[in-house]
Design a protein that fits this description.
Strand content: 15-25%
Number of domains: 1
Shape: globular
Helix content: 25-40%
Order of helices and strands: HEEEHEEHEEEEEHEHHHEHEEEHEHEHH
CATH superfamily: Aldolase class I
Structural class: alpha/beta
Distance between the termini: 27 Å
Bound molecules: flavin mononucleotide
Radius of gyration: 19 Å
C-alpha cells in the first residue's frame, strides 16, 4: 500500500471473521428495481462486478424471502429455484474479482399493496394499522398501501422459517453470507418499533417482546448457515414508513447487546442523521453506545463521504463504512477514495428506472471519466 493510501483509514485492511477485507468501503444495499418479475437479470452481473474490488465487501439490494415479501416492482427474490439459479452468475462474477458478497434478505410487511401479493391478499404485518399513501423516493409517484392483516401468533413461525429458507437459498446461490434487513420500516422493524407494533401477545408490548421476532430470525438463520455468515441491518432512530419508536436509543442498545448472544458477524446501523432513506440532517444522536455494546464488526451507513468515513474509522466509531449513493454513481469508489479523486454525481432520476444500462452500468470509471 502506498504512503498516501495508508493515511486513508478507509483504505486499510480489516479482518471480518473469516473474511480478509482489503479496505473498509462497503457497497450499501441498494434497491434498483431491475429484476424483472422478481428474478435477478444478467445485467446485474456487470453492475455488481463493476463495484467489486479484491477484498471488498458488497451487500446486495434487498431480496425477498417469499411471495408475500414484495412491495415494489421488479425487486429480486431468493425463494424460488429460478431466482437462486439467476443469482449464481452474479455472485460468481463478484467472486471472480475477489469480492465478498452478502445477500440482504427482506420482507416488506405492510409497505405493500394487494397488487404485489399472491391472490391479491392483504399484506401481512405486526399490526393492522394502515400506512398513509406516500410519495415514492423518485419524488413523483405516490405509493398506495393496502391495509395490512395483522399476523396471528401461530403464523409467525412460518414467516421466521421463510428467512431461514431464504438464507439457505442465498448460500446455495454462492453468497458468502446474508444481511437480515431489520431497518427502514419493513416487516422486522414493524415488530420492533412501538409506534407500529400494537400486539398483545408475546411479540408485542415490552422491548423484549417487540425484539423477539428479529431475534428468532437471527437464531434460525444463524443455526442454518452459521452465525459467522450473518449480519443484520438496523435503523432504530429512523421513522420511515411511519415506523418511529419512543425510545430508539434503548431499542438500539437492547438489540446490540442481544446480538452478542448469537455471535453474529456484523451489525450494520443506519445513522440517526438520515432523515429519509437518502437525505441527511443535523442530529444530536450517535451510534457510539451501540458500537461499544456490540462485540462483532460494526458497520455504519448514512450520509458518509471520504472525510467523514475516514474519521469514523480513525476514531474507532466503526470498523467499516457502507456507501449508498456514492457507490451507486462511482463503481470504483474505493480506488477514488484511495487517490482522493473526484467523484461522479449520482442521478436520482435513474435510481429506480427499469433500464438495464442507463443509471445502472453506465457510470464511468476513473480512467474513462471525461
Ligand atoms: C437507490 C437506493 C436504494 C436503496 N435500497 C436499499 C435497500 O435495498 N436496502 C437497504 O437497507 N437500504 C437501501 N437504501 C439505503 C442505503 O443503503 C443507504 O443507507 C442510504 O442511501 C444512505 O447512505 P448514503 O448516504 O451513503 O447514500 C437505498 C438507498 C438508495 C438511494
Amino acid at each position: 500500500m502506498s504512503a498516501e493510501a495508508s493515511s486513508v483509514r478507509l483504505i486499510t485492511p480489516y479482518k471480518m471473521g473469516r473474511f480478509d477485507l482489503s479496505h473498509r468501503v462497503v457497497l450499501a444495499p441498494l434497491t434498483r428495481q431491475r429484476s424483472y418479475h422478481n428474478v435477478p437479470q444478467p445485467h446485474a452481473i456487470l453492475y455488481y462486478s463493476q463495484r467489486t474490488s479484491k477484498g471488498g465487501l458488497l451487500i446486495s439490494e434487498a431480496t425477498g424471502v417469499s411471495d408475500t415479501a414484495q412491495g415494489y416492482p421488479d425487486t429480486p427474490g431468493v425463494w424460488t429455484k429460478e431466482q437462486v439459479e439467476a443469482w449464481k452468475p452474479i455472485v460468481d462474477a463478484v467472486h471472480a474479482k475477489g469480492g465478498i458478497f452478502f445477500c440482504q434478505i427482506w420482507h416488506v410487511g405492510r409497505v405493500s399493496n394487494s397488487g404485489f401479493q399472491p391472490n391479491g391478499q392483504a399484506p401481512i404485518s405486526s399490526t393492522d394499522k394502515p400506512l398513509t399513501p406516500q410519495l415514492r423516493a423518485n419524488g413523483v409517484d405516490v405509493a398506495e398501501f393496502s391495509p395490512p392483516r395483522c399476523l396471528r401468533t401461530d403464523e409467525i413461525p412460518e414467516i421466521v422459517n421463510h428467512f431461514r429458507l431464504a438464507a439457505r437459498n442465498a448460500m446455495e446461490a454462492g453468497f458468502d453470507g446474508v444481511e437480515i434487513h431489520g431497518a427502514h420500516g419493513y416487516l422486522i422493524d414493524q415488530f420492533m418499533k412501538d409506534q407500529v407494533n400494537d400486539r398483545t401477545d408475546q411479540y408485542g408490548g415490552s422491548l423484549e417482546n417487540r425484539c423477539r421476532f428479529a431475534l428468532e430470525i437471527i437464531k434460525v438463520v444463524s443455526d442454518e448457515i452459521g452465525p459467522d455468515r450473518v449480519g443484520i441491518r438496523l435503523s432504530p432512530f429512523a421513522d420511515y414508513m411511519e415506523s418511529g419508536d419512543s425510545n430508539p436509543k434503548a431499542l438500539g442498545l437492547y438489540m446490540a447487546e442481544a446480538l452478542n448472544k448469537y455471535g453474529i458477524l456484523y451489525c450494520h446501523m443506519v445513522e440517526p442523521r438520515m432523515k429519509t432513506v437518502a437525505e441527511k440532517c443535523d442530529c444530536p444522536h450517535s451510534l457510539v453506545p451501540m458500537r461499544n455494546a456490540f462485540g462483532g464488526t460494526f458497520i455504519v451507513a448514512g450520509g458518509y463521504d471520504r472525510e467523514d468515513g475516514n474519521k469514523a474509522v480513525a476514531e474507532n466509531r466503526a470498523d467499516l463504512v457502507a456507501f449508498g449513493r456514492l457507490f451507486l454513481a462511482n463503481p470504483d469508489l474505493p480506488r477514488r477514495f484511495e487517490l482522493d479523486a473526484p467523484l461522479n454525481k449520482y442521478n436520482r432520476n435513474t435510481f429506480y428506472i427499469s433500464d438495464p444500462v442507463v443509471g445502472y452500468t453506465d457510470y464511468p470509471f476513473l480512467e474513462t471519466a471525461a
